[in-house]
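Review box. Two proteins, two foldings.
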Amino acid sequence: MKTNYIRRTIFLVSSSAILLLIPAIAMAERNVTVATIGNVPPSFQSENKQEMVNHVITFWEKELKQVYPDKPDLIVLPEFCDFSGEGEEYLKVRKNQVLDYLSSAAKANHCYIAFGTKREDKDGLWRNSCVIIDRNGEIAGIYNKNFPTIGEMESGIKACNDAPVIQCDFGRVAVVICYDLNFDELRLRYAREKPDLIIFSSMYHGGIAQNMWAYTCRAHFVGSVYRQTPSQIRNPMGEVVASSTNYFDFAVARINLDCALVHLDYNWEKLTALKEKYGTSVSISDPGELASVLVTSNDSKTTVDQMLRESGIERLDDYLNRARHFRQSKDHLK
C-alpha cells in the first residue's frame, strides 16, 4: 500500500508517459536537441576517386537535411561514415574534404556534428576516430578508438589509450566507437569522469550493453549505428526516448541534461515533498524494478543539484558509497 501511495503522490513517470512532460521540460536551461542518423553512403566504385568523394558529400548533404528542421544542437553520424570504397587511393584524394564539408554544415546550422572517420594523425598513424565539430565549424575534440578489432589492427589501425571527455557548450561529452562497447575498463573510466552525454558511433548496435553504459555512466546515450539495426537515444536509465525505424533512418529528441539518479531508500518522503513543492518543475521518472528514479529539473532557475541539496536527497552514487563505507565500519564485515 505504501509503495502505491508514494508512486501516486510523487507522480513517478513511466516511459510511456514521458511525452506528456515535453512542454514543461522545454523551459529547462539544460535542454539539448540531439539527432542521430543511422546510414552510410551506398557502395560506389570509380576509377575517379574524386567522384567517390563527391558521392559521399552529396549523400550526407541529403541525409543531414532530414534533421535540420528540428534545429539540433548535436548530430551524431556512424563509424567510418566518410569512407566510401576501399584503399589508400581514395583516402589520399579524400584528405579533409568530407571534414571540411561537415564543418561548413555545422557552422551554417549552428550545431555540433560528430562523425566517424578513418584518418591519419599528426604522427602518421592511422586511427579509427570520432571527430566532434563545434557550432563554428571548428574541431571541438577527437576521440581515437581505444579498442579496435583484431582485424582493424591487422590492417594498420592503431589502438589508443586516451579517452578525453570533450567540453561542448551544452555539457561534457564522452565518445565510444563500436567494439569499444565491449570493454569494461573504458566504461568504468567514463563512469568516474561523469560525462553528461555519451556518443556512440558504430557499425553494430550492442544490445543491452547500450543500456548498461547509459546507466553505469549516469549519462544520456546517443547511438548512431548503420546497417539494419536502430539508432537510438537513451536516458541515464537506459530507456529509449527516440529511435530510427525501418521507415526513417534518423531520430531526434529533446533531452534535459539537468538530471540525477536517486535511489528510493531513505528518499520516499523526501521525493514526495520535492514533487509537492516544485510540481511540474520537477520530473521523477521510475522505470520500475530498479529501485532508482531519474529526477529532472524543469525549472530554469533551480538546478537539480539545488533541488536535491535543499531536500536532503542523496544521489545514487553517494548512497552506494555510503553503503560501502558503512559495510567497512565497526563490525559489519566479518
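Next protein.
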Amino acid sequence: MSNVNQDGWSKVKERLRVEVGDDVYSSWFARMDLEAIEDGTVRLSVPTRFLKSWIQSHYAERVLACWQAQEANVGRIELIVRSAVLKTTVQPKPKAELMAGAGDIGNRFNGNGHGRPMAVSDPGVHEALGGSPLDARLTFESFVVGRSNTLAQAAARQVANGLRGDPVMFNPLYIHAGVGLGKTHLLQAITWAGNAAGERKVLYLTAEKFMYGFVSALRTQTALAFKEALRGIGVLVIDDLQFLQGKSTQAEFCHTLNALIDAGRQVVIASDRPPNELESLDDRVRSRLAGGLVVEMSGLGEELRLEILKVRVQAARSHHPSFDVPLPVLSYIAKTVTHNGRDLEGALNRLLAHSKLTGHAVTLEMAEREVRDLIRPQEPKRVKIEDIQRVVARQYNVSRSDLLSSRRTANVVRPRQVAMYLAKTLTLRSLPEIGRRFGGRDHTTVLHAVRKIEGLVGNDMALAEEIEILKRQLQE
C-alpha cells in the first residue's frame, strides 16, 4: 500500500469523522481499514459481517462522497470482511479506535489453552467478542426520567460511573419491563458511558449474539478462549435474556455469570419478565439473578409520555429544522398512544413524513388521522401470582405462608386451590411453574386443584361469586 493512498485515507477518515460526529464514527468506522485502490474502486475492510452490512445500508454513499472529495477518480466503494482476507496475525488497535460497544476483546487472547491459535477468522466468535451494535442515540442524555423508571436509571448511572477496583454495590443489576419501555436504552447508555470513561471495558451483547458466539466457539474448538475473553471484561451487559435457549448455552451463561460476580466484575441484564418467571432457565441461574438488584420499569405515565415526545421533537429538529408539532398535538398523542415508547416514536415519524412530503403543517386533525391505528384498546392489568396469593390470603383470613405450606387443614386447602385456579385462569404461567410458586408442588396437584374448583363453581353459587369478586380485585 503506497503512502499516498494511506495519506489520502487518513484525510478521508478525518472528513468522515467531522461529518458524522465522534460517537457515530467510533461505533461504525474506527475499525475500517483501507486494503487497496484499483481502477477507481476503493476496497475497504471491516472486522465483522454486521459492520459491513450496516455501513453498506446506511453510510455507503457518504463514504463514497468523502473519497470523491479527496480523489475525484474514485467511482466505487467495495466493502469486505477482514476475516476473509489472508492475514497471519490480528493486531489490536489503539484504545482510542476501539468500537464503543466492546472493542477487540478477542485480540487479547491468542490461544485456547492448548497452544493452538484462536480462530479469529470465525465470524461468529469474532462478532460476539466485538459486541452487539449500539445505537448512538441511546445515551443517558436522551433518556427521559419519570416516576416509572427513576430507580432503574439511577442504578444504571451508578454502574456506568463505577471505577476500576471499586466494590460492586449490587450484582447483578437486573432490569425488567415490557416492550418499548426503555430497557435497551438504559443498557446501551451504560455501555456508551462506561466505555467513554475508560475505567472498565463494557461489553454489550444480546442473548442471541451470546448464543451465536458460544455455538461458533464450540464448532471451531475455541470455546475456552471465548470463555476467558468474556470473563476478562469489566462489565458484561446482556439484553433480552428471555431469548437465551439451549441447555449448553444456558450452562455456559451460568458459569460466566458466576465467574464474573465472584471476581467482583459487574453484570447487567435486561429481560421482559422478572427472574422467577424465566421458566426456561435453570433454578440456580434464576436464584443468582434474583440475588442482585431487581428493578421493574413500569408503564409510561401520560406526563412522562409527553416529556418523551418533546425530547424526540427536539432531536428531529436537528435534522429537520422546520419540523414543528404544536403542544395540543403532542398532548393528544401522549394521551391516546399509551402502549409504549416505540409507538410514540412511530407517531412522530408519521407526522414528520407527512409534513415533509406534503409541505403541510402538523395539525390536530392530521395527527388524529395519522396515528389512529396506534391507539390500542386498554389492555387488562397483568396479574402476578404473588398478587393472587396476597388477595386470596386476605379474603380467607390465612397467611401467604399458609398457602405455600404443606398444611392440609380445610381452612387452608380450599383457599390454596382457589389461588391455584386463579393462577391458571388469570396468568400465562404453566402448571409446573404454578406448582413451583406454591411451595414446590407437582403440576398434577395444580391440575387437581383447577379441576376441583371448576367442578364446584358450577354448583356452588356462593363460591362462584367469591371467585368473581377476587377476579375483579385482581384486575382493578
